[in-house]
Amino acid sequence: MSSQLLPRMKRELEILERDPPPGVVCYPVDDSLLHYCAQIKGPKDTPYEDGQFKVDVQIPSRYPMEPPKMQFITPIYHPNVDDAGRICLDLLKMPPKGSWKPSLNISTTLTSLSVLMADPNSDDPLLVEIV
User: Fold this and answer.
1) I need a surface site. Which of 48, 60, 85, 119 has the fewest CB within 10 A?
2) Which long-range contacts (CB under 8 A, 24 or more apart) does 123-128 make?
3) UBC core domain: which residues (predicted)?
4) Tell me, what's the pLDDT at 11?
5) Which residues are paired to 118 by β-bridges?
6) What's the pLDDT tens digit per position in 71-103?
7) Is it true that domain 5-118 has CATH number 3.10.110.10?
8) Is 37 a catalytic residue?
């Protein structure tokens, strides 16, 4: 673990607690700063509206140079999420295929995931049959 990782994760946890993304709760698992559980409230006016969706968030040792690993724990029928809960979201991938940047953080990534739930990306589906 890099010496910058721990202070960064403490700052990110403070942001998540003080100013969480709308409809999202995120907390450390077993007091770890490298493993989180997020709960995303289903976005309004979507098929997910009344649901609560758990997402496992793992922070790699090279974070923020590398994106966090996120996976739905709660099953979700969505074209950008496969049966194992893996998520196809450009922010979760390194360039050139993805758009992860070290300036992003867990909060912005969870916000993007919530937006993806409300507005699936049919140009980049994981499950073509759902599109």
Assistant:
1) 119
2) 124/80, 124/88, 124/90, 125/79, 125/80, 125/88, 126/79, 126/80, 126/81, 126/82, 126/86, 126/87, 126/88, 127/78, 127/79, 127/80, 127/81, 127/82, 127/83, 128/79
3) 4-131
4) 96
5) none
6) 999 999 999 999 999 999 999 999 998 999 999
7) yes
8) no
Using CA atoms, how far apart are residues 69 and 73, in angstroms rounded to an integer?
A: 13
- Report residue 67 as tokens: 């994106």
Distance of alpha carbon 116 from alpha carbon 30, whole angstroms: 28
Spatial separation of the C-alpha atoms in residues 49 and 35, rounded to whole Å: 26
Question: How far, in Å, CA of 101 to CA of 41, rounded?
Answer: 26
Retrieve residue 47's tokens: 């098929």
- The number of residues making up the chain comes to 131
Is pLDDT at 60 greater than 90 in this prediction?
Answer: yes
Q: What are phi and psi of 111, to 5 degrees?
A: -60, -45
